[in-house]
Amino acid sequence: MMPKLFAAQRGRMLVGLLGLGVGAGLFSLAIGWLIGQLAGGFSLWLALWVLVLVAGFFVAKFLERVLAEKLGQNYVAELRRGLVTHALLSERGPSTGITIARSTNDLSSIRNWIVFGMVPLMAGLPLVVVSGVGLFALHPLLAASLGLTLALEAVFLFGLAGGTFSSAKTLRRHRGNLAARIADTVAARTAISAGICGGQRADLDGDLRREPGRMG
């Protein structure tokens, strides 16, 4: 069973990401308004404020990236503990290879989904909404162009989602089978080594028994 994404500590991180998204949207609106003011007449103070707001926007995006990484690592750590506990305590748990594959490749995919998929949605949605409201205040056609661009992108991504999901499932299954075979082979190294050594010793004993006959 997958752990809840909106747990206590992760919930606070998600709220922080939402706040950063709103802050980035407000920064972008203020930057656009000040640039419009500068277009009417240059002012050193307005230019300095633009630079300050641009720096604040990039700081907000940097903090968003750091918080997203912490969120992904926290979620994956809880998943990994659950997988290892299930493998150790369950009577009919998965093989060692399957456990290794799930604890490495699969969890890395989940972390990437959170960092590069879930977090941009959480932090980007407020940015898009605030920017859309600001563009609508400037001119409705600007907001309409933003909405049309997002709609086209959603249609394009929806068309790619089916094939990507199918390929990911196939790749995950092949990785699990390969990891299981490698783990089973490594686990059997003692028996394989004993068999090889035993076979070599048997050949050596046979040669020693035949040697007196050759000498005679």
Commentary on this structure:
- By secondary structure, the chain is mainly α.
- It has one domain.
- Helix content is 91%, strand content 0%.
- It has 5 helices and no strands.
- The protein has helices spanning 8-40, 44-89, 96-138, 140-187, 189-215.
- Helix 3 packs antiparallel against helix 4.
- The N and C termini lie far apart (75 Å).
- The mean pLDDT is 77.
Secondary structural class: mainly alpha
Distance between the termini: 75 Å
Helix content: over 70%
Largest sheet entry: none
What sort of overall outline do the alpha carbons produce when their principal axes are compared?
elongated
Mean of pLDDT: 77
In N-to-C order, the SSE pattern is: HHHHH
DSSP helical segment count: 5
Q: How many strand units?
A: 0
Q: In summary, what is this structure?
A:
With 216 residues, the chain is mostly helical. The protein has helices at 8-40, 44-89, 96-138, 140-187, 189-215. The mean pLDDT is 77.
Summary keywords:
216 residues, mainly alpha, 5 helices, 0% strand
List the helices and strands and how they pair.
Layout: H1 8-40, H2 44-89, H3 96-138, H4 140-187, H5 189-215
